[in-house]
Design a protein that fits this description.
Helices cover 55% and strands 19% of the residues. It is an alpha/beta fold. The protein has a five-stranded mixed β-sheet, covered by helices on one side. The relative contact order is 0.12.
């Protein structure tokens, strides 16, 4: 039998939840078993499957962990680098955009090198096994700090976001964003509900919507607002980056 245990502390529990969600689906497909436990501030989830499915399951686990490290760990790292900034939607979106922009390259780097052990600490991987990537991330953060107009000037930060988006493919035409209390629902131009891209890190509905807009890179955003302060901030930022319509 193939066994795999993954764990994370309270601060990175969202990362473990992301991996757990993906692997629970994979385990069900191969008739595997899942067990979870919490010991103090440490959360664990274990999976067991037949040896015949071991390589398939191990690869799915590796890919899920690479997603967490390439987006979640990088997001945490860059937020620490920019901790002096006011935590506005604009500054958080700047960090999100930097994560999305390089995610494919970072994930490839990790996929080529990451080896899963029978007991893998997700937070340990982030803290101790990503030094080359963290050097690259810090160089990018330091470059932006030296040219702090990218952060402090609305026009320049908008152009920076547009530049990053120009390097990303567009996967939807018009994107409709509907805010329902603390949740966000996304629709394409044919009124089909779009699955939300998991941010991996804990965010509010407005940052989640902006994160998805950046990933989808639509030709237009239509916002069905809820009149809240967060929605007003979202609309203001959205107008700077995308052609935006309010309904």
């Amino acid at each position: 039998m193939y066994e795999l245990t993954l764990s994370a502390d309270d601060a990175r529990c969202k990362w473990l939840s992301y991996v757990d969600k993906r692997l629970s689906v994979a385990a069900e497909k191969v008739h595997g078993l899942r067990v979870s436990a919490t010991i103090g501030s440490r959360h664990k989830v274990s999976f067991v499957c037949g040896d015949v499915y071991a390589e398939q399951f191990r690869e799915e686990a590796r890919q899920a962990l690479c997603d967490v490290l390439a987006v979640g760990c990088k997001n945490e790292f860059l937020h620490d680098c920019f901790s002096h900034l006011p935590q506005s939607l604009a500054s958080r979106t700047l960090v999100d955009a930097m994560c999305i922009f390089d995610a494919a390259a970072d994930k490839k780097y990790l996929t080529d090198r990451l080896v899963l052990t029978a007991e893998t600490c997700i937070d340990g991987c982030c803290d101790f096994r990503l030094k080359p990537l963290k050097r690259k991330w810090r160089e990018a953060a330091d470059l932006i700090k030296r040219h702090d107009a990218v952060i402090k000037d609305d026009e320049i930060s908008t152009e920076f976001l547009r530049y990053l988006l120009g390097e990303l493919p567009s996967s939807v035409g018009a994107l409709s964003v509907v805010f329902c209390g603390c949740k966000t629902v996304l629709f394409d131009s044919q009124n089909h509900v779009l699955p939300s891209v998991d941010t991996v890190v804990q965010v509010d509905a407005y940052e989640e919507a902006m994160f998805n807009a950046l990933c989808l890179n639509p030709s237009k955003v239509i916002v069905y607002g809820d009149g809240s302060e967060g929605c007003t901030e979202f609309v203001s930022l959205c107008k700077r980056v995308f052609p935006t319509e309010i309904r």
